[in-house]
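Appendix B. One record, verbatim.
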Amino acid sequence: MIEAKPKILIVEDDLDIAEMLNAYFRVQGYEVFTVNWGEDGVRAAQTVLPELIILDIRLPDIDGYEVARRVRSNRKTQTVPIIFLTEKRERADRLRGLELGADDYITKPFDVQELRIRVRNALLRASQSSLTNPVTGLPEGRLVDEHLEGFLTKKDCSVLVISLEGLDSFRESYGFVASDDVLRAVSLMVQNAIRESNTADAFLGHLGATDFVIILQLGSPAQIEERIRTRLEQSLDYFYPIRDREQALPAGRRLSIKIGELNSNQGSFGNLDDLKANLLRTRSR
């Protein structure tokens, strides 16, 4: 599998600096996007979804502080690391940037090698903090991959994948807060079902934003699956306001669940990507 390059968004109105940083970070192995205006920076942050933003404060339209405020106020970009790049040196300017959630602050003229190290460190901190889902608190990303890689080498081991369908449509109708409440409640119900099944060795995490994965060394996957299915199917309608519970919606737009299962004795899955693909296919049946 080819690893995706980290994406950096550079918001800088000095064309020479913007071009230099673009070329430098591309050579360093990053995917780089540059814009020269603050409003363009806000829009690019939402469309590119970068792993990090290098942000000048002095811009032709809105300043970098306003760009940072809007980036931080949007749910999709609120955790993206921001490094302010500016000529401002006063303590009050630094404090204002930090209050807006900036991760670092470097003044012009700057040492590009120092900036490279600060970028690397900010990305490392962000990757370490993204090991758990911000809504449910469950493991995701590398932590889940490590457990799935263990599954590839073990016998008599089962994996369940539980997918919550229709959450995007639910979010469009009732907002982010309500959809986060649904995801959080579903994760708690899954955790309770595992606990009640006396499978203390089970690992629960996120395979995707709305996909949960349970890895079982012992115990009956059928028993846990039945508990989860029964509990969720009885509860999903209650997340809707009373007036909407009886509303008929097309398939895929109403909250529902799909559950798939794989056993390590079913055959070789080759590698982690192959295993994940098989898991997603099982839950789509």
